[in-house]
Amino acid sequence: MSLHTLIRSLIIWPLSLGSVDALAIRVYDPDRHDRFLNFPTAPTHNLQFMHAGFNLTGVGWWTPPGNTDYQFTMVSPMHYIGASHASPGAGNVLRFLSLDNIIRDYTVADRVFIPIDDDTSSDLFIGKFNQPIPSSHGIGFHPYLNLPNESQYLNRAVILLGKPARGASQTTATITDSGINDTRVISMPYTIASGGNDEAYYEQRDSGSPVFIDQNGTAAIIGVNSVLATVTTNPPIGPPVTTGYVNFANFVPHYVDKLNDVMEVDGYRMTKAIPGSTTLTLTHSPPSSVIRAGHAFSLELNLNNTGAIISENVKLINMFPDGSIVTGASGSAWFDESSATETRARRAKIDSGNDTDYTLTLTFPTPGTKVHTVTYSSDQTPLGPSTTQNFNLEVIESFISWTANLVDKSASGDDDMDGVGNLLEYVFGGDPTVPSRQVAGTTVSLLPTYTNTGSGHTFSFVRRKDFTQRAITYSLESSTTLENGSFTDASALINNTQTSSINDDYELVTLSLTLSGDERFFRIDVELNE
């Protein structure tokens, strides 16, 4: 018996338009072996398909004018792999079918031919779309089966897919280098004389179709179809007789590092079917200064991989109360995936013992206690109670939030036409919507008052109790002329200060003054430095 692998023919064969038209299954049954009904014109899922128990939505096909026989397999929400000699270039469209039978089309942005060790191109390529497929589209992607050594991939039952969107089964036998630039391949022999009814061998245009192993109910990819070899015997009399075939698929685990090199520039890595476990630790650092409603501020997140192995395909989700305005979210090697309700980001990896920073800039329009929910995960740190943390952020009222519902929000605005501008109403306790010269809800004078008791002079004004937090300063000034620019600091005239509470928010400040013989005019100068 001899094995003939006519490499020149095998390289050309998948690209030719020969007469064979399907994955060669020993006993073909359309109910059992067809993935879809009415493929490719109006495909829907065949619920009797032998591999219907697996989510294979990540296996798509080339749309016309490309050949619909060629299939490609998603390995991230953005990347797919196939055979180099049957790879669509930029601008081509690949088609997928969601579990609810919705056709999804995506445009090819780029492709990279994966090199072998000497940088010669292998027969494996990776392509990507213009943007990641949204999870709402219902198109999955496949992990690869990561086993400790090559021998553990042998003598394993596999899921074999081919044209036109058909499925079969096979068993792996050897891992070797093929005649296509020494591409590393895994073999699956087919004997004509005997074997299971679901066994199959590749035909023309099966190139790129995936080979999976069932890993706990998940179709984990180990290869993509590359070439076919013919097994012949030489009888004593007559020409050689074909006794079988050997399917060869590009052995994907061998090229994972090179695939990762391509994917990491987009914030992804190949997903392991057996990911292992590590620990991510989150540090949440709000600003040291007061957070004011209506004012932008930044907070820092630090995600640390404290475990012993790499953390891959890291996800970070930040959620804030409705109405929050996020204007910035960034960090080194983080990629934004934000939606209208969530600030999302992804990162290809965090190595063991390393950490990464992420900065958020946002505004809360209203005061109060705001809950910041942070959820983080990776392939090695699945989502769970320990990966979601809530942080309370205390937000104080500001002049911006206090005037938010007014028509004229400026410092001098006076919607209620009481002659007292917004800023003075804000610092002295007025209600900008009610014409009044009294502190809201009281009979206390809104504006400062001066009293000459005969035995002394006092000057009283209303002050916010939290004026320091609000960045308000109240300063006594005096002038002898009332001319512009004539008012100067009068704090030296104060000999005593008394305060009395008006309500929870305001207090009355009474200054006892020591005056000289000159006539003076007093005022409270108010500054707001939010």
Give an overview of the whole structure.
This protein is mainly β and 530 residues long. The chain has 3 domains: 265 residues, Thrombin, subunit H, CATH 2.40.10.120; 117 residues, Immunoglobulins (Immunoglobulin-like, Sandwich), CATH 2.60.40.10; 107 residues, Immunoglobulin-like, CATH 2.60.40. The chain contains 5 helices and 35 strands. The longest helix has 8 residues. The protein starts with a strand and ends with a strand.
Topology of helices and strands:
Elements: E1 2-4, H1 7-12, E2 24-25, H2 30-33, E3 36-37, E4 44-45, E5 59-62, E6 71-74, E7 79-83, E8 93-97, E9 103-115, E10 121-129, E11 157-162, E12 166-171, E13 175-177, E14 184-191, E15 200-201, E16 210-215, E17 218-233, E18 241-251, H3 256-263, E19 280-285, E20 291-292, E21 297-305, E22 311-319, E23 325-330, E24 335-336, E25 343-350, E26 355-363, E27 368-377, E28 388-396, H4 399-402, H5 422-428, E29 449-452, E30 457-464, E31 472-479, E32 488-489, E33 494-501, E34 506-513, E35 521-528
Parallel strand pairs: 20-28
Antiparallel strand pairs: 1-17, 2-15, 3-4, 5-6, 5-8, 6-7, 7-10, 8-9, 9-10, 11-12, 11-16, 13-14, 14-18, 16-17, 17-18, 19-21, 21-26, 22-25, 22-27, 23-26, 24-25, 27-28, 29-30, 30-34, 31-32, 31-35, 33-34
Protein name: DUF11 domain-containing protein
Organism: Oceaniferula spumae
